[in-house]
Amino acid sequence: MRPKTLNFEQLVKKNKQELLEDEHSISRIEKKLESKQIELVEKNEIRK
Fold this sequence. Notes:
Distance between the termini: 67 Å
Oligomer: single chain
Number of helices: 1
Strand content: under 5%
Radius of gyration: 20 Å
């Protein structure tokens, strides 16, 4: 059985949703990185 083909509007909607999900994932990763950087800076400050 062939997969259902999507029309243009459905593809646009699907792509937009995927982009929003990606944006959310990127935001979470950025927050984690920022948190780690702050942690490292604070550790380094304590050692001085």
